[in-house]
Write a structure and sequence with these properties.
CATH superfamily: Metallo-dependent phosphatases
Largest sheet: 6 strands, mixed
Distance between the termini: 18 Å
Number of domains: 1
Strand content: 15-25%
CATH class: Alpha Beta
Radius of gyration: 18 Å
CATH topology: Purple Acid Phosphatase, chain A, domain 2
Structural class: alpha/beta
Number of helices: 8
Strand order of the largest sheet: 4-5-6-7-9-8
Order of helices and strands: EHEHEHEEHHHEHEEEHE
Length: 283
């Protein structure tokens, strides 16, 4: 176990993050059980753990005893409605079912008060976000009404178009706009004055973080330009996201943006790295 004390001999917590565990896969369920335990630290789970509440509960049952606190945000897969066990759970009802799974294990979510994390740099506010996307991560010459055809020219289409219902909202972009407005109001009203933040969202907060060499026209399903300046506006010491399945850190305006995906088994096994290597220390 690593030394957890700073130069004064005072124990300090660490903040770790991982996303896109995709526990519908047997290989990824096995990978979950190889992640190291840090019982004194916090773990951020930045979305796409699974597609059903029981998959979230499997992750929480394994990880909760191994970390002091878990923080979760939803990815697009958590919002999918498949035929069968999901039944009528669509849109906000599906999100509510995932929130209920979190609450059974005491996992913090975007609907909870923002917690203060006491780490080596001093206190920071951990901010779990649920914002979705609105197809604005597209070239300026592509009109909104043309975006699906533009992606289809390269045979790209997200499964969200079939599986992610926005009910009761009329569209995914309308749900995104409502989430952005609601979250911005909360941040402006609830953040403690002067404290830095860790912004956690499944989707990247900036368009220039999306670089997908194999499927560049997947970008419309990757976020919203409404959050381009949130790392500055809300005093981010770091930002965390997943979704892209390309783990790396990029810096914008002096702020590190950590992409913390594990990804599908064929992706992480092809890289030749064990799952534990994908656990990222945020601070």
């Amino acid at each position: 176990m690593p030394d957890r004390r700073d130069g004064t001999g005072v124990a300090r917590m660490k903040l770790w993050a991982i996303s896109d565990l995709h526990l519908g896969s047997a290989e990824n369920r096995d990978a979950l059980r190889t992640l190291p335990a840090y019982p004194g630290d916090w773990l951020v789970l930045a979305g796409d753990l699974g597609e059903r509440p029981e998959q979230l509960e499997e992750a929480f049952a394994w990880l909760s005893p191994r970390y002091a606190r878990l923080v979760w945000v939803p990815g697009n897969h958590e919002l999918w409605t498949r035929p069968g066990p999901d039944g009528p759970l669509r849109g906000e009802a599906k999100y509510a079912a995932m929130l209920a799974a979190c609450r059974r294990y005491g996992v913090l979510t975007p609907e909870d008060p923002y917690p203060v994390f006491e780490g080596e740099r001093g206190p920071v506010v951990v901010v779990p976000l649920f914002l979705l996307y609105d197809y604005s991560f597209r070239p300026p010459e592509v009109a909104f009404g043309q975006v699906l055809d533009w992606a289809a020219e390269h045979r790209v289409r997200s499964a969200d178009e079939l599986l992610l219902s926005p009910d009761p909202w009329p569209s995914r972009q309308a749900w995104c706009a409502a989430r952005v407005a609601h979250t911005r109001a909360r941040l402006e009203a609830e953040l403690p004055p002067g404290l830095p933040t860790i912004l956690v969202n499944h989707f990247p907060l900036r368009r220039d973080l999306v670089h997908l060499p194999r499927i560049p026209r997947f970008s419309p399903w990757c976020g919203t330009t409404a959050t381009e300046d949130w790392h500055i506006r809300f005093r981010a010491a770091a930002c965390v996201h997943g979704h892209l399945h390309i783990p790396r850190t990029l810096v914008r305006d002096g702020v590190p943006f950590h992409e913390v995906s594990l990804g599908y088994a064929k992706q992480w096994t092809a890289r030749g790295r064990p799952p534990a290597d994908y656990l990222r220390r945020v601070l």
